[in-house]
Structure formats: C-alpha cells, structure tokens
Write a structure and sequence with these properties.
Membrane topology: Multi-pass membrane protein
Order of helices and strands: HHHHHHHHH
Keywords: Membrane, NAD, NADP, Plastoquinone, Quinone, Translocase, Transmembrane, Transmembrane helix
Protein name: NADH:ubiquinone/plastoquinone oxidoreductase chloroplast chain 5 C-terminal domain-containing protein
Radius of gyration: 39 Å
Distance between the termini: 86 Å
Number of strands: 0
Organism: Acidimicrobiia bacterium BACL6 MAG-120924-bin43
GO biological process, one term: electron transport coupled proton transport
C-alpha cells in the first residue's frame, strides 16, 4: 500500500510517457470520474460511514451492532475469550504494527529514497518463476509420477478390465457346453437340483 501511495502521489508523472515497447496512445491527464462512476462511489461511502457508526469503539453505549447481535454471538464470544489469540491480542497487535512499520520503511527506502533496488520487476519478468517451477516439476519428479500413473493404467486398470472379460468368457464357454439341446440332459440337471434341495431341507431340519 505504501508503494502504491508513493508511486501515485509522490512519484514523477508518467501519463505522458510513451515506452518503446508499448503501442502508440494519446496523452492522458488525470481527471475526475464521470457522474455515472462518481455517484455509486458516493453512495458506497455513505453506507460505509453508516456501517462504521453502528459499532463505534468509544464506549459500550456506542456499540449498537454489538448489542443488537448479543443474543446470537454472546455464547461464541465467551468461547473466543478463552482462545490463545484473544488472550494475547496485544502481543499480536504489536507484531502486526511492527511488520506494517517495516513494510512502510522498506517501501520508502525503495520507491521514495531509491536506496534499494526494487525486486518485483525481476520477479514479474520471470512470471513469478511459475514456468521454471512447472518445467522442473514436469521434467523431474512429475515425470516419474506420470510414468507411474501410466504404468498403473496400462497394467492394473486395463489388466483388471481385460482379466474380468477373460474370466467371464471362460466361464461362459464352460456353461455353454451344458446347453446341448437334449431334453434328457435338462431333466437330469433338474433332478440333481431337486435332490440337492431335498438334502438341504432334510439336513437343515436335523440340525
């Protein structure tokens, strides 16, 4: 945020510059937004002020939103007060302030005083090192992973599918032999089935 403020409000005007690598364009002078953009911003700003006024931190009497939500969040608030973050909120607040101050000082040193070189041009030129990282991943461990997945697909997945088809075909071939078209063969099979059922019922009754 400090970098943005410095470059927008304290840096040199750049709206008339024409970089060699960019296409030609007309000169641009900063100006106020048109009404169609300005009026919604005014409405949003007013709503933001109303939202802030609902929970003023000056006293309990000005915390209207807190009182309104108390029946719903009172139990949750009791649990929050037992957490480590709540009990050490001032420590965390101090850490946040220190980190923010370090960021402000670093931004001033880089973009206002120019005592340090900015690092984001190099990072952005390399596209956050995304392409290089992706290439290393694909050509290194990614390559081994992809080869392993391909082997599993070819030997395990395809093997299971083809093996199931082979087993079904073999069983069907054996069962097909019993379909010989002779009535006496079918009668014999039915008789054997009846005997098996009778034996099962008899044994079940004895047990």
């Amino acid at each position: 945020m400090t970098r943005q403020v410095i470059m927008v409000f304290y840096g040199e005007a750049k709206w008339n510059d024409h970089a060699a690598e960019n296409g030609a364009h007309g000169d641009f002078i900063p100006h106020e937004s048109p009404r169609i953009m300005l009026m919604p911003l005014v409405v949003l700003a007013g709503l933001a002020m109303v939202g802030g006024a609902l929970q003023l931190p000056f006293s309990k009497k000005t915390a209207f939103l807190e009182h309104w939500l108390a029946p719903v969040v009172e139990e949750s608030e009791a649990h929050i007060k037992e957490t480590w973050a709540y009990q050490n909120k001032y420590l965390l607040l101090g850490v946040a302030v220190v980190v923010a101050m370090l960021g402000i000082v670093a931004a001033i040193a880089v973009y206002a005083k120019h005592k340090m070189k900015a690092i984001e041009p190099k990072i952005l030129e390399q596209a956050w090192n995304y392409d290089a990282t992706a290439a290393r991943l694909v050509s290194g461990p990614g390559n081994a992973l992809f080869n392993g997945v391909a082997w599993i697909d070819a030997h395990v997945v395809d093997g299971a599918v083809n093996g199931t088809a082979t087993i079904v075909r073999a069983v069907a071939g054996q069962v097909r032999k019993s379909q010989n078209g002779f009535v006496r063969a079918y009668a014999a099979i039915i008789a054997v089935g009846v005997v098996v059922l009778l034996a099962w019922f008899v044994l079940r009754g004895l047990i």
